[in-house]
Design a protein that fits this description.
The structure holds two protein chains of two kinds.
Chain A: H1 12-35, H2 64-88, H3 90-117, H4 126-138
Helix pairs in contact in A: 2-3
Chain B: H1 3-8, H2 10-28, H3 32-54, E1 59-61, E2 65-67, H4 69-94, H5 102-119, H6 123-141, H7 148-179, H8 184-193, H9 201-218, H10 226-233, H11 236-258, H12 267-288, H13 294-316, H14 320-345, H15 355-358, H16 361-364, H17 366-380, H18 386-400, H19 404-429, H20 448-466, H21 469-479
Antiparallel strand pairs in B: 1-2
Helix pairs in contact in B: 2-3, 2-5, 3-4, 3-5, 4-5, 4-11, 4-14, 5-6, 5-11, 6-7, 6-11, 7-9, 7-10, 10-11, 10-13, 11-13, 11-14, 12-13, 12-19, 13-14, 13-18, 13-19, 14-17, 14-18, 14-20, 14-21, 17-19, 17-20, 18-20
Classes of the chains: A mainly alpha, B mainly alpha.
Chain lengths: 139, 480
């Protein structure tokens, strides 16, 4: 690649611009600190949500299944991107490309089979699974 | 792609296939022994493919990979080391009743990434190999997920390796912006053609970022912080894998990347490398003095060893490949032995990684103690072990090319390093502190494959230490 031609755009407008931004931001913050009112009542520090009082903590434990399904979605979605990229160039890539995408899809199917078999796609919790197994045993 | 291309790629194809086969086997029927057997079969097949493909080397397969003698040797080393790790993993993971099979799948994939790294002749292949290796390692390091320390290590490695991959990509982008090349050979030629006095800043920055990424994987000193935590947290066989395969592949890549560029031509980069090597030797050896945990101790010792290895790269110019490969082979064998012993002694709950665990080991397990002592002496560089020959070779290359600064640092800190290796050995040979008071922890029975592997490793260390000429001649013929 050839070297870029020397650029002689002056740098000082950028510096000035940055300085003005900084000064303006500082000015706004400092001014409101001087002029603003100060409250220290019972509910001052509570989060405001359209007048409804917040309840409980936001840190709830979610079921791992949510993460799993999100992750599978991202994985298979990304892999679909590869297939789209191949499809766009299918003709110039010819048979070689076709065979390669077949291998790719085969590996994906294998992975899906693996996920199915290890129970990663099973939405039930462990307790349900066990109870079903017992039911089938009794039968 | 023609038939010779496929034969040249055979080890990679076989590795990928066997990883898929192990996954299928796990999906169909979960069985620890069959997963291990299948993985070992795959590795064996890939190893036997090596002599077959030797006829077709050197050969550039696609613009990304090159199969030359260098790649051939390192592929062999990686496959053999992975096989040893798998043998060690079997006993280690069979104590735990918690899904051990996927470890082999991940180990095979990581080995695939490492093989891609040593065959890379293009930054894209470097990135691909690095990512396959790293992503498998994230899961492997956190594999014993009932231990908090493993999960912590896994997350630390995930964050840091992702950051270093970002450095690598940005560095490659900068280099590409300036030179328009991502091919190592082409890149080397272009870098040689740069005016040596004042290289373009953008190029220097790009190379610097690339070195940061490589330095992170090798745990060279400013980028070494992750090593002790990850070594300690990862299950012992995985630690052995991180210390040998992952670092070995990266060191091979370093040789490939910087042999065509003619390092002394770039004073800034050369200085940076020298500083990293010296700092790694100093920091690794000094920090190891304070450790009581054997895994952490070996982590710091491996930082020092990577410093020696980098020094070898700087010392020997054209001969760098031979010197570094010899040193690295010896290091891989010794480290595999050390972590192998730790893996054998480990229990279901925790790894046997403190000095108390090893106290009086000689009276309970003389064979293991003998092997461990040999490996530690080899790491320390005591004569009659392979480590001595490796270090001697590095130092003599340094003296030949009059790199006095690094040679002096190397010699002084090797002396310092002797102290902590000997401390572990002394712990093993001194009587147990709690003799008769507390029943000593029950030792798991040794299985035949593990004993064979360890015997093989220690024989190798002694053999290379007493009679290295055959191996050296082979290396010179292959890589010289």
């Amino acid at each position: 690649m050839t070297a870029q031609p020397p650029v002689d755009t002056p740098l000082w407008p950028l510096v000035l611009y940055c300085a003005i931004v900084m000064i303006l931001a500082a000015f706004i913050v400092i001014l409101s600190a001087f002029l603003g009112q100060r409250h220290r009542e019972r509910t001052t520090n509570e989060p405001y949500e359209s007048g409804i009082a917040p309840t409980g903590s936001a840190r709830i434990r979610f079921d791992i299944k949510f993460y799993l399904s999100a992750m599978f979605f991202v994985l298979f979605d990304l892999e679909a991107v590869f297939i789209f990229a191949w499809a766009d160039a299918a003709r110039p890539l010819g048979w070689t490309g076709y065979i390669e995408i077949l291998i790719f899809i085969a590996v994906l199917l294998l992975a899906l089979f693996y996920l199915w078999r290890v129970g990663a796609l099973d939405w039930r919790v462990e307790k349900h699974r066990r109870s079903k197994r017992q039911v089938t045993k009794v039968n | 792609m023609h038939r010779p291309d496929f034969i040249a790629l055979a080890p990679l194809l076989i590795l990928a296939l066997s990883a898929a086969a192990v996954m299928l086997a796990i999906a169909l029927r979960r069985n620890h022994l069959s997963a291990m057997g299948l993985s070992l079969t795959g590795l064996g097949a890939a190893l036997t493919a090596l002599p077959l493909m030797a006829r077709y080397t050197p050969r550039t397969v696609t613009p990304l990979l090159i199969m030359d003698h260098f790649a051939l040797f390192y592929t062999g080393l990686i496959l053999a080391a992975t096989a040893v790790v798998i043998v060690l993993s079997y006993d280690y993971f069979s104590q735990k009743d918690d899904l051990p099979e996927e470890a082999y799948l991940l180990l095979l994939l990581a080995a695939l990434g490492a093989v891609i790294l040593v065959c890379a002749r293009h930054v894209a292949a470097l990135f691909l190999g690095l990512e396959i290796l790293s992503v498998s390692l994230y899961a492997l390091i956190a594999y014993t997920r009932d231990r908090n320390i493993s999960i912590e290590a896994g997350i630390k490695y995930l964050v840091l390796a992702a950051v270093s991959a970002a450095f690598l990509l940005f560095g490659a982008a900068l280099i590409y912006a300036h030179t328009g090349a991502l091919d190592f050979q082409q890149l080397g030629a272009l870098l040689k053609a740069e005016p040596s006095g004042r290289p373009a800043l953008i190029l220097l920055a790009g190379l610097g970022f690339l070195v940061v990424a490589v330095g992170f994987k090798l745990a060279l000193t400013p980028f070494h912080m992750w090593t002790p935590d990850i070594y300690q947290g990862a299950p012992a066989p995985v630690t052995a894998f991180v210390a040998t395969v992952s670092k070995g592949a990266m060191a091979a890549l370093l040789v490939r990347l910087f042999t065509p560029t003619d390092l002394p031509h770039w004073p800034a980069l050369y200085l940076f490398f020298t500083a990293m090597a010296a700092a790694s030797m100093a920091a690794g050896n000094l920090l190891a003095l304070l450790q009581t945990n054997v895994k952490r101790l070996l982590a710091y010792s491996s930082i020092a060893h990577m410093g020696y290895l980098l020094a070898a790269l700087l010392f020997s110019g054209q001969k760098a490949a031979v010197v570094m490969t010899f040193y690295l082979t010896v290091y891989v064998v010794s480290i595999l032995g050390c972590f192998g012993i730790i893996a054998i002694l480990s229990s279901k709950e925790r790894d046997a990684d403190t000095c108390q665990d090893l106290q009086g080991l000689f009276f309970r397990r003389p064979l293991l103690t003998g092997v461990f002592t040999t490996m530690l002496l080899s790491l320390a560089g005591i004569p009659l072990t392979a480590g001595f020959i490796g270090k001697f070779y590095v130092v003599s290359a340094g003296v030949e090319n009059a790199h006095w600064f690094l040679v002096i640092i190397l010699v002084v800190f090797s002396g310092v390093g002797l102290f902590y290796y000997l401390r572990v050995i002394i712990a093993m040979f001194s009587p147990s502190l709690d003799e008769g008071l507390v029943p000593s922890p029950a030792l798991p029975a040794l299985s035949a494959p593990v004993v064979l592997t360890l015997t093989f490793l220690s024989t190798l260390v002694l053999w290379l230490g007493v009679w290295p000429s055959w191996f050296l001649a082979t290396l010179e013929k292959m890589l010289g």
